[in-house]
């Protein structure tokens, strides 16, 4: 089990990863993540929701990191964050 301090450190790492993805810019200087920050409108893009059963946008990931449970947080940070 993670200590409270370790959990806070790992959440901070994950939020930094999400923020870095959101801040990444293409060759034209514009953010490449704009289309992925929010989920598409369900009425306009019904086909998307038929194909993607559990859509997740960057802002959803950010919210989940803030409220994530310790086992999930431990797993994710063990896989993608440096120790």
Helix content: 55-70%
Supply the CATH architecture: Up-down Bundle
Strand content: under 5%
Mean pLDDT: 83
What structural category arises from helix and sheet content? Answer: mainly alpha
N-to-C order of helices and strands: HHHH
Indicate the low-confidence ranges by residue numbers. Answer: none
Number of strands: 0
CATH class: Mainly Alpha
The termini sit apart by: 16 Å
Identify the CATH homologous superfamily.
Answer: Bromodomain-like
Characterize the main sheet. Answer: none
Number of domains: 1
Put simply, the count of helices is: 4
Give the oligomer, counting copies of the same chain as homo and different chains as hetero: single chain
What is the CA-based Rg, rounded? 15 Å
CATH fold name, please?
Answer: Histone Acetyltransferase, Chain A
Report on the architecture of this protein:
- With 83 residues, this protein is mainly α.
- It has one domain (4-80): Bromodomain-like (Histone Acetyltransferase, Chain A, Up-down Bundle), CATH 1.20.920.10.
- It contains four helices and no strands.
- The protein has helices at 4-23, 46-51, 58-67, 70-80.
- Helix 1 (4-23) packs antiparallel against helix 3 and helix 1 crosses helix 4 (70-80).
- The chain starts with a helix and ends with a helix.
- The mean pLDDT is 83.
Concise synopsis of the structure shown:
This protein is mostly helical. The chain has helices spanning 4-23, 46-51, 58-67, 70-80.
List the SSEs and their pairings.
Layout: H1 4-23, H2 46-51, H3 58-67, H4 70-80
Helix pairs in contact: 1-3, 1-4
């Amino acid at each position: 089990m993670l200590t409270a301090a370790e959990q806070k450190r790992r959440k901070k790492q994950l939020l930094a990863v999400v923020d870095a993805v959101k801040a990444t810019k293409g060759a034209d200087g514009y953010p490449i993540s704009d289309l992925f920050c929010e989920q598409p409108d369900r009425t306009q893009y019904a086909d998307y929701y038929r194909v993607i059963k559990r859509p997740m946008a960057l802002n959803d990931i950010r919210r989940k990191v803030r409220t994530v449970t310790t086992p999930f947080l431990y797993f994710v940070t063990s896989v993608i964050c440096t120790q």
